[in-house]
Specification:
By secondary structure, the chain is of the alpha/beta class. It has 7 helices and 11 strands.
């Protein structure tokens, strides 16, 4: 069993997320970034799937925050393949609470990262992000209010063929308390039905209500802006 979930998840990450939220974000995010000409801070850049979307939608610098070495390694390899991206993207090897840009950004993007922060961590995070934004700057993140699933059996969440191998992600909710659920993931590689490798990860996810998020963001000096279903847009009050 491993709790180093990022290094375990990296071989599965792009396969699974291309089959998940990433295609929707490619549609929803660019219109929200229309008109952003200055720098963009991306919180939780992962392997760079959304970094590419930001780069295609905006002309300025991008500061990609990614604390996990395994994720950051793929992100930097992705940048190395694209000279234009390599010129524009600075990778910051720190956590979201430790970001300190030299100049405030015009926009902050945080995709499928919110659920990694519990209430106390979020309440510390919003003022940090407000300090990284210029007055009137834009904060964008994805969020849908959904009931947390109850504890259940292990289920197949994704299966992907790569050459002769099949990469599978299985998941199980172990416990739910308030906005927090504890889960178990299995990352498996098989060939012809024979298990080659398996890693188990235990973790937590947090799903705050929209009302809870509104209270936290307004307390940190943000005001709501228009956004389509599935996204939240807020601006730092001037």
């Amino acid at each position: 069993m491993s709790n180093d979930q990022y290094s375990v998840a990296v071989p599965f990450y792009d396969l699974w997320h291309e089959d998940g939220h990433v295609p929707e974000i490619r549609e929803l995010l660019p219109p929200l970034l229309k008109g952003v000409r200055g720098s963009v801070l991306e919180i939780g850049a992962g392997t760079g799937l959304i970094t590419r979307v930001i780069a295609q939608a905006t002309p300025g610098e991008i500061f990609a925050v990614e604390p996990a070495l395994a994720m950051r390694s793929v992100l930097l390899s992705r940048l190395a393949e694209d000279p234009a991206l390599r010129e524009r993207v600075t990778v910051l090897a720190c956590g979201a609470h430790d970001v300190d840009l030299d100049e405030p950004a015009e926009a902050i993007v945080m995709i499928s990262v919110l659920y990694g922060f519990g209430r106390a961590e979020r309440e510390r995070l919003w003022p940090v992000l407000a300090r990284q934004l210029e007055p009137g700057g834009l904060l964008l993140f994805n969020h849908r209010e959904r009931a947390l699933p109850g504890p259940g059996e292990m289920e197949l969440m994704g299966s992907y063929r790569v050459g002769r191998h099949t990469y599978q992600v299985r998941g199980q909710v172990l416990e739910v308390s308030g906005e927090t659920s504890r889960y178990r993931h299995l990352y498996q590689v098989t060939q012809d039905g024979v298990l080659i490798s398996e890693d188990e990860v235990l973790g937590e996810t947090h799903r705050p209500s929209t009302a809870r998020l509104r209270a936290e963001l307004e307390a940190a000096g943000f005001v709501p802006d228009d956004a389509p279903d599935g996204m939240q847009a807020w601006r730092r009050a001037g």
